[in-house]
């Protein structure tokens, strides 16, 4: 799947400076496992000792780590970013093979570009628009009136319900579901009445969405994912959520209805965010945190209960149930202490 | 997708009283975005100021909020419920188009009603029964001996393993899996032996199940979801769980094996419920709570650790690990204080 | 689906001793619901009273629980394990029906054993190898160069992306996704650059993987699941994770990138494990625990915040935010107390 490129070409292209031989690189690899045809990188100075022992053909390093390095290397401002960009060249997305697989079911009222590739068993509904460069892989479902921009990649088994609008170059991984109904129910005294969900899901350009992630359509307005957002696996995004541009959500995050998350936020794995909140641009939420109120200032927020050996935890958890009472007792002690000290002072 | 209806007709039908012109409504919308063809509603008095500025054709309000309102409005006991019921009329489920898509694979020993609609690439196993009014959308799998009641809607990519029994009017969203094996393993000294899972999954009438939710078959007895329950996305329901009628589970909830949840409970998002518990009718569990013991009394239960700025959390989390010890120190202080006060009393 | 076997045959085969009539058993059932054709078992002595009232044809018990038991029973060292093994005989995996369903799309460059069964709408990519005894059920996707060992069972709707290597006798439940891209992004100043994920997913022999579980391919090296591991539903396993042999993960667990979990661990439901950690062999993590540091010693670890009635929780949660301060106040009280006691001592 990979191709071969001269490191000089990659260095020039991505603003790095080559020192030493112009190696032909065919792959990327970690410092430990790299062979002579591989580009590797040092992002964390902690692993600097590996620079000498690695079998890598060439290594991307920061200037600060390059002093005295004899082997071929490239000096980059951000070696991790250089590695990302180089790897994109070495492992290009496979070419589009335009055409519709004979087993696909395309509604006659759908508009599929001749420059798009539609895989086996794909189903495309009436009014759907699939632009040039799109690849819709096997067993995916593109509902009625869905719009896919240019160069969208739907991996196998993706489901896009009616009316989803997907920007250019979006990548959606297997099993993801976009546009299913939001969880809207009104209590009718003895049962729930379903509230029809009539909003859409709008996905900005360059968004990536992970496997088995679910993004519900809006109840009245739309659910919106901003340009360049990165959304990992098994994430639940409820109706009317808005996520700002370039925000990243790690795996297993849940976001309840109508919450607005700003741009360039980072939400750690398994964080759970309540509904109707606002989280400002640039907020960082640590993994496992339950966010139950809005965040107005950028910065890091946390709060998972720390793990302990079970026997210790049992003791502490017992106290946790009586924390209000403990604080009350400390207040009482402070009062008594003040009285005693006052009395002692009187005696002096 | 929506139809147009006179508001007078909706008001009569759902027990509300029209004040002002008999507007023709074609859609529902929020107060902010509604136009003259839209029905909107005021559920939260906090937004009462929007009543005057909204462009909505007609607004559903409580009597208490209707005083002095000049524009067309309907007075309803519960405007949110009125909106739900009206929206169901304006956005009816699409009509069933009876018939089997030529790409579907129906076992000759299946019993599919002629009044059911079977979409592309659907697979139906031997002995399955699909009743009138059912819609089984693309790429869904209906295993052997599965029974679907009347008017069931399986969205695309739903998987029902062998023997599931689904009540009337049930709606299952994309990617949901019902009837996969429960997690049953016996330790055999140096490896796990699988315990065959021979129970079924029984889903009551009018249940709705969200995207990528998984409901395992029972180990020996059945896993049972009561009538009218509402189950959101990405929820795990383990083997032999029973969920009572009209109970609602929000997204990302997990319920471990053999737990019985009563009727009309509300389980908040990402709550995790341990196995072999009993939760009584009418319990409310707040989002993010870990339920590790049975709940015997109706009411609200919570317990997620509260979020803080990371720097504050670090300080508190450090103390959390020593809470048992802190309580011990407070007890010691109280003893010392009692001695000192006794001594001081002696002196007086 | 079940077959009938003499209990004497099962007892002999699995090292148990029959007492009483040689019953023909056709099923397994709980003590409460078993009929005369069922094998039941008593694993928990708490339910010993059911031994007399159960209608089961034969019951597996420990020697300690068998004293005085008149009805047919088998004495086994571990009745639960005996039941598991017996149930495997009574409910064998259905036979393989070799052949490829006409609706399946098999790449001409794939290598599918004639002794494998390929179901409807299955897609198999170029270079894929499917060995004898495999069953690939409906709507599953087997990507290019995937390798399935002998007797693998892919339930409906499983997605295996390119290059996954699956051991013998592996079972994968519906909707699971293996080999999708890991969550790798490098920040480029104003947007994320995707890091191509070029590792694979390697699954050992006898592993079982639950519904809608996602296992990402490695970034550079491989993601590895050891032999005999048991992985429940809706679990996220990130890139470069390694899981040791016979480790069991309960539902809704998340494991962040590059974490290594040892052999024979048990990870409770909804536990969340941060990235780049090491968890030693034999660790037990309780359900709902957030593991944010490595575990070096076997044993049980926990830490979910305990549930309370909401009104109590509100009081305690308020104190939690000030725990560092509370500890500080207790230290101050201890100092004051020491001074007072010293002064009191001086007086004596």
TrEMBL record, chains A, B, C:
<keyword id="KW-0175">Coiled coil</keyword>
<feature type="active site" description="Proton acceptor">
    <location>
        <position position="239"/>
    </location>
</feature>
<feature type="domain" description="UDP-3-O-[3-hydroxymyristoyl] glucosamine N-acyltransferase non-repeat region">
    <location>
        <begin position="22"/>
        <end position="88"/>
    </location>
</feature>
<keyword id="KW-0441">Lipid A biosynthesis</keyword>
<dbReference type="Pfam" id="PF04613">
    <property type="entry name" value="LpxD"/>
</dbReference>
<feature type="coiled-coil region">
    <location>
        <begin position="316"/>
        <end position="343"/>
    </location>
</feature>
<comment type="pathway">
    <text>Bacterial outer membrane biogenesis; LPS lipid A biosynthesis.</text>
</comment>
<comment type="subunit">
    <text>Homotrimer.</text>
</comment>
<comment type="similarity">
    <text>Belongs to the transferase hexapeptide repeat family. LpxD subfamily.</text>
</comment>
<keyword id="KW-0808">Transferase</keyword>
<dbReference type="Pfam" id="PF00132">
    <property type="entry name" value="Hexapep"/>
</dbReference>
<comment type="function">
    <text>Catalyzes the N-acylation of UDP-3-O-acylglucosamine using 3-hydroxyacyl-ACP as the acyl donor. Is involved in the biosynthesis of lipid A, a phosphorylated glycolipid that anchors the lipopolysaccharide to the outer membrane of the cell.</text>
</comment>
<keyword id="KW-0012">Acyltransferase</keyword>
<dbReference type="InterPro" id="IPR020573">
    <property type="entry name" value="UDP_GlcNAc_AcTrfase_non-rep"/>
</dbReference>
<dbReference type="InterPro" id="IPR011004">
    <property type="entry name" value="Trimer_LpxA-like_sf"/>
</dbReference>
<dbReference type="InterPro" id="IPR001451">
    <property type="entry name" value="Hexapep"/>
</dbReference>
<dbReference type="GO" id="GO:0103118">
    <property type="term" value="F:UDP-3-O-[(3R)-3-hydroxyacyl]-glucosamine N-acyltransferase activity"/>
</dbReference>
<dbReference type="InterPro" id="IPR007691">
    <property type="entry name" value="LpxD"/>
</dbReference>
<dbReference type="InterPro" id="IPR018357">
    <property type="entry name" value="Hexapep_transf_CS"/>
</dbReference>
<keyword id="KW-0677">Repeat</keyword>
<protein>
    <recommendedName>
        <fullName>UDP-3-O-acylglucosamine N-acyltransferase</fullName>
        <ecNumber>2.3.1.191</ecNumber>
    </recommendedName>
</protein>
<keyword id="KW-0443">Lipid metabolism</keyword>
<keyword id="KW-0444">Lipid biosynthesis</keyword>
């Amino acid at each position: 799947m990979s191709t071969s490129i001269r490191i000089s070409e990659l260095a020039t292209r991505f603003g790095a400076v080559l020192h030493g031989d112009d190696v032909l690189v065919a792959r990327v690899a970690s410092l430990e496992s790299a062979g002579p045809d591989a580009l590797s990188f040092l992002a964390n100075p902690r692993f600097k000792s590996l620079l000498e022992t690695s079998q890598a053909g060439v290594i991307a390093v920061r200037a600060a780590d390059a002093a005295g390095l004899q082997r071929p290397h490239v000096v980059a401002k951000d070696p991790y970013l250089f590695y990302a960009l180089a790897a994109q060249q070495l492992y290009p997305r496979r070419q589009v093979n335009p055409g519709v697989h004979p087993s696909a079911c395309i509604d006659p009222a759908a508009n599929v570009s001749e420059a798009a590739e539609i895989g086996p068993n794909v189903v495309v509904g009436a009014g759907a628009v699939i632009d040039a460069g799109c690849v819709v892989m096997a067993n995916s479902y593109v509902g009625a009136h869905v719009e896919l921009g240019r160069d969208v990649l739907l991996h196998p088994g993706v489901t896009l319900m009616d009316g989803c609008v997907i920007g250019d170059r979006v990548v959606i991984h297997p099993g993801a579901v976009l546009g299913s109904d939001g969880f809207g129910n009104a209590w009718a005294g003895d049962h729930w009445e379903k509230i029809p969900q009539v909003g859409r899901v709008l996905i900005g350009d360059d968004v990536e969405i992970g496997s088995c992630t679910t993004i519900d359509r809006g109840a009245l307005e739309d659910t919106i994912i901003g340009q360049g957002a990165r959304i990992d696996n098994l994430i639940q995004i409820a109706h009317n959520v808005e996520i700002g541009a370039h925000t990243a959500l790690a795996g297993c995050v849940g976001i309840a209805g109508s919450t607005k998350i700003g741009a360039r936020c980072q939400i750690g794995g398994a964080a759970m965010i309540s509904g109707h909140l606002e989280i400002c641009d640039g907020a960082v939420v640590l993994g496992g945190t339950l966010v139950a109120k809005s965040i107005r200032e950028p910065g890091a927020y946390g709060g998972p209960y720390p793990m302990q050996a079970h026997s210790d935890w049992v003791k502490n958890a017992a106290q946790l149930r009586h924390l209000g009472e403990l604080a009350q007792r400390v207040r009482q002690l402070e009062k008594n202490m003040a009285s005693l000290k006052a009395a002692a002072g009187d005696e002096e």
